[in-house]
Design brief:
The complex is a heterotrimer of chains A (about 375), B (about 350) and C (about 240). Helix content of chain A is about 70%, strand content about 0%. Chain A has about 375 residues and is mainly alpha-helical. Chain A has one domain: ABC transporter involved in vitamin B12 uptake, BtuC, CATH 1.10.3470. Chain B has about 350 residues and is mainly alpha-helical. Chain B has one domain: ABC transporter involved in vitamin B12 uptake, BtuC. In chain B, the strands form two sheets. A two-stranded antiparallel sheet of chain B has the order 1-4. The two termini of chain B are about 35 Å apart. Chain C is of the alpha/beta class and about 240 residues long. In chain C, helix 3 packs parallel to helix 6. In chain C, the strands form two sheets. Chain C has a six-stranded mixed sheet, with helices on both faces. The longest helix of chain C is centred in the C-terminal third of the chain and has 16 residues. Classes of the chains: A mainly alpha (about 375), B mainly alpha (about 350), C alpha/beta (about 240). Chains in contact: A-B, B-C. At the A-B interface, helix 6, helix 13 and helix 16 of A face helix 7, helix 12 and helix 14 of B.
Chain lengths: ~375, ~350, ~240
């Protein structure tokens, strides 16, 4: 039964399994494990980013194409919910309309970009998505009547999701189950469902074809697979999932603006998460998103104290200051691409594989859809 | 019999044809804009601004397109050399404020030339290091190339933050470059834009001279077409490529200085912002083509400036639209590079 | 017996998953005109490309002028004295005829006497000296590609199917030019499908099939033995005769 939920794609490393179970447990019971707003914020952000990064991994890791427009689709989701809720009022109907519209727009746009630029060369896709995403960001901040411009949109969510709402009269395990917690569980379960769906997609025959294309485009074409169609479809699935993640974030934050959804900084974050976690593994998205989000939330404080250590030495204090953590992440990112392109998950799996070497048959060769040991190449 | 054959052969030879249509397209865009804008003097101002911007973008984009043409390497970090170049001009401007504020044209030109030299040297060296450390391990692997060069961009951007601070820095134009120059009744052109156009033309001519009249230039042109055959003739294309990469980075640095003065503000992210325009330019022009790069730069700059005047909100979108239209017409860009 | 100029010993070449050359052995004696024959897909082009280092031999070794060049980089192999005229001509179409020849002359200068000689072989090149190579006809491009190999003396010239797709009259022209080259004392390894052309030029012949050498010998011997021709080259070769 467990195998069916995971689509037969197991973590294949005890440490990884442990880490994943721990993350699942903490996220599932976060409202009851911590007090205060900050931990729950971090937990919700982790859920959203797991879905966002996993959907990006479908493109980068499994299909082998680089898009810089992923945050655009994230933003389309966020703005879809935000615009509907702020224009039509905090009703479920408005939200539903926003969701449908956002998903339709994201899917169509992804299809258009894919059909247009994947036809030429994969490298065009990266360049064109960067241009389109930048234009979209500018557009969103220019059309202030519609999107709230640089300030973004604040709006009210349906009553069930408001902090003032009480689901039960009595506290459960000492925690009052209010609208925030309801929202959190909506975010959690939709992100979980989305992730399992992506796991199913990459382990389906469709996913196998995507990987065959990634390994050898010409061969796949010669075998009769329409490469552009497959890639475009992957790009659509990925975009719709990203839009879904955007909707979840919009519900959680009750605010949508360029900085929370569209900015290039988030695109960079997503790239870092997927590469450090492990491209082409999906579980890497969980590890990457969790580690990076926790680090981003708590590391500035730690680095701030490190910065004090270096105080007095010119540049060293600035190098270690909290604002410069992207510098170190950038270096880590480059090193990961060179030395462990399958990221943390790939390393853990290889470690386990070596340990069992000779005692069991190589599992990954019998599992289609696994690419834990294959490097994405173009 | 042989004569008959050679004569028939001869008739198949035509003079090398320059493809005029894209060049005419640039002129057409400028002419169509005139009635839309309405005022001739505004049109001249906008066109001049566009020419200046176009030439600066050309300077920055030319290196990127040659690097791609030669080695099939796409450098997402190219934008950061623009920022590096622009910030290097601070090393000249800060100690030489006297020269900047001096009313002497000679001193003003000297300070600009110094800025350019320092910036080109610094970004050229940066380029060499970047090629060695970041790009060399990922040849022929586009996916990793995109990721790693993007990573390089992040790291160098952060280093600029460390050394120059994150807030925007205002820089002053040299005294005599400020203000406008009256070219006729109602027609005033900003002096610096004229200078930018002149510098752009000098760079373009120098590049044409090197590409057409020197052995290195011949090798670059041949290498863009067919790197393998250049190797089979006994030349190491790698060395050539490293040279072109460094030269392209130096040109990006030069472009950065010009762009910094054009905007009179330096931000660490300026390179990445321009990179988007540069990508549009090289895609429009045809990856690997220098002529296409020039035409693409001019087209993008004209369209950007005209739409910024006519309908400011769609300025950046207009370039995307331009790119889509060009690609629908010529999917490989205006001047597709013949690859063997 | 003097050392052969070029020796291939047990050369294997893989391209992707395909095992193209499966142990190729032959030699090209100094001063000879050796023709490499074989049907399409036999591995002739791969053999030339492997000699040039454009594809790396996975096994075996290639010796040129007494030195092992198997693992050398293409530019070094070229610089050691081999000129290569690839199958698709590969002239630089954006460069003029003159510029193509200047690049081929590694010293940077075109020797006037050699240029006169080349013009006498291929008069068309003189007429179109200043024109972009892309504007030439197919036959003229082929002449330019060969001229590039002749612009400076080279110890060995590799030529891949120069007559492919050319009109018969131009093929005749080409054969006359190669005779001149042969008489000038150059060592040539020519890949050819056209047996008539091969017979008129070659003094030694090597026949390939399925990535292996199936016959080596003197051209005169093969030319005289039609049963052997039939067996080695099949019917489509005779169609050219």
């Amino acid at each position: 039964m467990f195998g069916r939920v995971l689509s037969g794609d197991y973590p294949r490393s005890p440490i990884l399994t442990g880490a994943l179970l721990l993350i699942l447990f903490v996220l599932a019971f976060a409202p009851f494990l911590f007090t205060g707003a900050q931990p729950l914020n971090v937990a919700a952000k982790i859920c959203v980013f797991i879905l966002l990064v996993a959907s990006y991994d479908l493109l980068l890791g499994y299909t082998g194409i680089v898009s810089f427009a992923h945050t655009m689709f994230f933003g389309i989701g966020g703005y879809g919910a935000a615009i509907a809720l702020s224009r039509l009022g905090p009703s479920w109907a408005a939200l539903a309309l926003g969701i449908v519209a956002a998903i339709a727009v994201a899917g169509t746009l992804a299809l258009l970009i894919g059909l247009f630029s994947l036809r030429v060369r994969a490298i065009f896709f990266a360049m064109i998505t960067l241009a389109v995403a930048t234009a979209f960001l500018v557009l969103a901040s220019q059309l202030s009547g519609f999107t709230g411009g640089e300030d973004g949109l604040n709006y009210t969510v349906p009553e069930l999701l408001r902090p003032s709402f009480r689901l039960f009269a009595e506290p459960i395990f000492g925690t009052i189950v209010n609208g925030r917690i309801v929202t959190y569980y909506i975010v959690f379960f939709i992100a979980l469902a989305g992730f399992l769906l992506l796991l199913r997609v990459v382990n389906s025959p469709f996913g196998s074809v995507l990987q065959a294309i990634r390994e050898n485009e010409f061969r796949a074409e010669a075998l009769g697979y329409p490469v552009v169609v497959y890639r475009s479809f992957a790009s659509v699935v990925s975009a719709v999932m990203a839009a879904l993640a955007g909707i979840l974030l919009a519900l959680w934050l009750r605010y949508t603006g360029p900085d929370t959804t569209l900015s290039f900084a988030i695109m960079i974050d997503v790239l870092l998460m997927v590469v450090i976690g492990g491209m082409g593994t999906l579980y890497g998205a969980v590890i990457g998103a969790t580690l990076m989000t926790i680090a981003e939330s708590y590391l500035p404080a730690i680095m701030g104290s490190l910065g004090k250590v270096g105080a007095g030495i010119p540049f060293l204090s600035t190098l270690l200051s909290a604002d410069r953590w992207l510098l170190w992440l950038g270096i880590l990112f480059i090193l990961s691409v060179y030395f462990f392109p399958t990221g943390i998950v790939g390393k853990l799996r290889a470690h386990w594989q070596n340990k069992r070497h000779g005692t069991a048959q190589r599992q990954d060769s019998s599992t289609p859809g696994d690419s834990g040991n294959t490097r994405p190449s173009n | 019999m042989t004569d008959g054959i050679t004569e028939r052969e001869e008739t198949t030879v035509r003079a090398p044809a320059i493809d005029w249509i894209p060049i005419l397209l640039v002129a057409a865009v400028a002419l169509i804009a005139l009635p839309l804008i309405g005022s001739f003097s505004t049109w001249v101002t906008l066109t001049m601004a566009a020419l200046a911007m176009g030439m600066i973008i050309f300077i920055m984009a030319s290196g990127l397109t040659l690097v791609f043409g030669l080695m099939d390497v796409i450098n997402f970090g190219h934008g950061v050399f623009i920022s590096v170049g622009a910030y290097m001009s601070l090393l000249v401007l800060r100690p030489l404020t006297g020269w900047v504020e001096s009313p002497s044209i000679a001193l003003n030109i000297a300070v600009l030339v110094l800025c350019i030299l320092v910036a080109m040297a610094a970004s050229g060296l940066f380029g060499l290091a970047f090629e060695r450390v970041i790009i060399r391990p990922v040849y022929r692997q586009h996916l990793k190339q995109i990721l790693v060069t993007m990573g390089g961009l992040i790291v160098i951007e952060q280093l600029l933050h460390v050394f120059f601070g994150g807030s925007p820095i205002t820089i002053a134009l040299p005294q005599t470059f400020r203000g406008g120059l009256a070219l006729g009744p109602d027609i005033i052109v900003e002096r610096y834009r004229l200078i930018a156009v002149v510098v752009g033309i000098i760079v373009f001519l120098a590049m044409m001279l090197v590409l057409n009249r020197t052995r290195i230039g011949l090798l670059v042109r041949a290498g863009v077409e067919n790197p393998e055959m250049v190797e089979a003739l006994g030349y190491r294309i790698r060395r050539l490529f490293v040279g072109v990469f460094a030269a392209g980075s130096a040109l990006a640095g030069l472009g950065g200085v010009m762009w910094g003065f054009y905007q009179q503000t330096l931000t660490v992210g300026m390179g990445l912002q321009v990179l988007v325009l540069i990508f549009i330019v090289v895609i429009i022009g045809g990856l690997g083509s220098i002529g296409g790069c020039l035409i693409g730069s001019l087209l993008v700059a004209l369209v950007a400036n005209y739409t910024a005047f006519l309908e400011p909100k769609i300025a950046l979108i207009s370039n995307i639209a331009l790119m889509l239209l060009v690609l629908m017409w010529r999917p490989q860009g205006l001047y597709p590079v013949v690859k063997v | 017996m003097p050392d052969p100029l070029l020796t291939l010993q047990g050369v294997h070449t893989h391209i992707g998953h395909y095992h193209i050359l499966q142990g190729v052995d032959f030699e090209v004696p100094r001063g000879s005109f050796t023709v490499l024959l074989g049907r399409n897909g036999a591995g002739k082009t791969t053999t030339l490309r492997t000699i040039m280092g454009l594809w790396k031999a996975s096994r075996g070794n290639i010796r040129f002028a007494g030195e092992d060049v198997t693992s050398r980089a293409t530019p070094d192999i070229a610089a050691s004295g081999i000129a290569y005229v690839p199958e698709n001509m590969s002239v630089f179409s954006g460069l003029t005829v003159q510029e193509n020849l200047i690049l081929a002359a590694r010293t940077g200068k075109i020797d006037a006497v050699r240029l006169e000689w080349i013009f006498s072989l291929f008069p068309a090149l003189q007429r179109f000296f200043g024109l972009a190579a892309g504007t030439l006809s197919g036959g003229q491009k082929q002449m330019l590609a060969i001229a590039r190999a002749l612009i400076e003396p080279r110890d060995l010239i590799l030529v891949d199917e120069p007559t492919k797709g050319l009109a018969p009259a131009i093929v005749g022209n080409m054969i006359r030019a190669f005779r001149e080259v042969k008489n000038a004392g150059a060592t040539v390894l020519l890949v050819e499908q056209n047996f008539m052309a091969a017979r008129m030029l070659g003094d030694a012949v090597v026949v390939m099939d399925d990535g292996r050498i199936v016959h080596r010998g003197a051209m005169a011997e093969l030319a005289a033995d039609s049963a052997l021709q039939q067996r080695l080259l099949g019917l489509h070769m005779e169609a050219h005769q």
